[in-house]
Write a structure and sequence with these properties.
The chain is of the alpha/beta class. It has two domains: about 160 residues, 3-Layer(aba) Sandwich (Rossmann fold); about 280 residues, Dihydrodipicolinate Reductase, domain 2. The chain is about 35% helix and about 20% strand. Strands 14-13-12-11-7-10-9-8-15 form a nine-stranded mixed beta sheet, with helices on both faces. The protein has a six-stranded parallel beta sheet with strand order 3-2-1-4-5-6, with helices on both faces. Helix 1 links the parallel strand 1 and strand 2. It starts with 11 loop residues before the first strand and ends in a 19-residue tail after the last helix. The chain binds NADPH dihydro-nicotinamide-adenine-dinucleotide phosphate. NADPH dihydro-nicotinamide-adenine-dinucleotide phosphate binds next to helix 1.
Length: about 475
């Protein structure tokens, strides 16, 4: 299994799932932007089962790009994308589909195959590609979720590794292509001043919140097979924790970051039933595609420990949910309190320890809270936050960055098989051994139990606010 060497550009993008929801919402707009930016100039072969023609595919591309970019569309770039499109129709269960694909790829020796398809078909498509020899110098990009638990992730890794070597496998988590997430890595290792205090001696607890103020929209049946723990905690939130807590990479390069992150996942203590609060918003069971008796969680909060020298004893509180009060993502690092109560206001229960806040979405911001003396004779003060709005991200979509990286063979922002399996190991027990989901009202911050029993004296949760001028999405 040689695979294409990193840095050798692929000469085609094969796009399984071209008629799907993700394709419409994110992939076509990203392909258009790649064409505009000059990072995509190879044939794009859409594969689906809709009995479409290439004209139908072109129409879907135009519609998807216009829906995203409105009047700002560069018509010339859009037509250049359309000019790159080819279409292969067929069932992924049928060997003839892959033979037709091989014919369509006759001129191309190093395709990148992107699997934007239901996860149950990842293995089928990889085996279909291998059966007709379309794996040799190819790369494969696999959408999330990568498995449903540890056993299925291992099985899937085995099937894919049977056809592709690890260097040619790109497990995508679009979250890692977001500017604010990449900034966590940069901020930590470009500012050495934080290093001496970035450990159990100075950090009391860490909170990570990824909240959405909307429900499952039209993806109820997908959500029924996932739930918040699988959909967000095990991948997005764990990745944030890994970036916050990893040791410094030992050299500049993909391998060093991956290795440092794997060590964090391996040091995470497997979650137990009591570390996990599950919730379900009232009304979820009435959504299209949802079982009227469903116990699937639309909210998950966990208390996580990292059993390493640096992080022993520091609790990490992670939560995510749908239909919460706002749509926002935030990390709050709470530092320890002063060792002695020297000032009159030291016993004030509302006094927070110093904290560093990373706003991740919908806009980026970093805030450092410190206490400052109020004018007057008494030694009392108040909390003030130094705010650093991060520059508004370029108009770039995470998929634009990630697919361009995959076509070039740069896997820095993708997930290694060891990380995937180590992360599943942390949640594996509580996927099945958990309490029933607790009902919560839409527009709230989820079940009370997360605010009470789970976080206890390390609380309260810091609830992200909607910043002025932002709608919250
Ligand atoms: P959809 O169900 O909307 O689309 C699935 C696609 O796969 C369609 O193009 C469908 O073709 C094709 N397909 C399904 N079965 C077959 C088959 N047997 N043979 C040939 N084609 C088939 O899924 P999504 O676009 O929502 O999701 C795709 C992937 O992206 C999933 O892994 C999902 O987890 C991931 N993802 C999706 C997100 C989203 O917001 N939608 C967000 C993040 C990740 P046809 O319609 O022609 O039958």
């Amino acid at each position: 299994m040689p695979g294409a060497a990193p840095g050798t550009p692929s000469d085609a993008l094969v796009f399984f799932g071209a008629s799907g929801d993700l394709a419409r919402k994110s992939i076509f707009p990203s392909l258009y932007r790649m064409v505009k930016a000059g990072t995509l100039d190879v044939p794009v072969i859409g594969v689906a089962f809709s009995q479409w023609s290439v004209d139908d595919l072109a129409e879907r591309a135009r519609e998807a790009v216009r829906a995203k970019h409105g009047d700002a569309v560069d018509a010339e770039a859009l037509e250049r994308l359309v000019g790159l499109l080819r279409y292969v129709d067929g069932d992924y269960q049928d060997a003839a589909t892959f033979q037709a694909l091989r014919d369509a790829l006759a001129e191309c020796a190093r395709p990148t195959h992107y699997l934007a398809i239901p996860p149950s078909l990842f293995g089928t498509v990889v085996q279909g590609l291998k059966a007709v020899g379309l794996h040799g110098d190819a790369r494969v990009v696999v959408e999330k979720p990568f498995g449903r638990d540890l056993a299925s992730a291992r099985d899937l890794n085995a099937v894919i590794r049977d056809a592709f070597d690890e260097e040619s496998i790109f497990r995508i988590d679009h979250f890692l292509g977001k500017e604010e997430i990449m900034n966590l890595l940069y901020f930590r290792f470009a500012n050495a001043m934080f290093e001496p205090i970035w450990n159990r001696n100075y950090i009391q607890s860490v909170q990570v919140t990824l909240a959405e103020d909307f429900g499952v929209r039209d993806r109820g049946s997908f959500y029924e097979s996932a739930g918040a723990l699988r959909d967000v905690v095990e991948n997005h939130l764990f990745q944030i924790v890994a970036l916050l807590t990893m040791e410094a990479p030992t050299y500049q390069g993909y391998g060093a970051v991956q290795a440092a992150k794997v060590n964090v996942f391996k040091a995470m203590r497997p979650l137990r039933r009591q570390d996990y609060v599950r919730g379900q918003f009232v009304g979820y069971r009435d959504e299209h595609g949802v079982d009227p008796h469903s116990d699937v969680e639309t909210y998950a909060a966990v208390k996580l420990h990292i059993d390493s020298w640096r992080w022993a004893g520091v609790p990490f509180y992670l939560r995510t949910g749908k239909c919460l009060a706002v749509s926002a993502g935030e990390v709050v690092v709470n530092f320890t309190r002063p060792p002695q109560a020297l000032f009159d206001d030291a016993q004030d229960p509302d006094q927070h320890p110093n904290r560093l806040r990373f706003r991740l979405s919908p806009e980026g911001e970093i805030g450092l809270s410190v206490r400052v003396k109020r004018p007057g004779e008494e030694f009392v003060g108040h909390e003030q936050e130094l705010k650093l709005p991060t520059e508004s991200p370029l108009e770039r979509e995470p998929y634009e960055r990630l697919l361009a990286d995959a076509l070039r063979g740069d896997s820095a922002l993708f997930t290694h098989e060891d990380s995937v399996e180590a992360a599943w190991r942390v949640v594996d027990d509580v996927l099945t051994d958990h309490a029933p989901a607790i009902a919560y009202q839409p527009g709230s911050w989820g079940p009370e139990e997360a605010a009470g029993r789970l976080i206890g004296d390390d609380g309260p949760w810091h609830n992200p606010a909607v910043l002025p001028g932002h709608g919250g999405h």
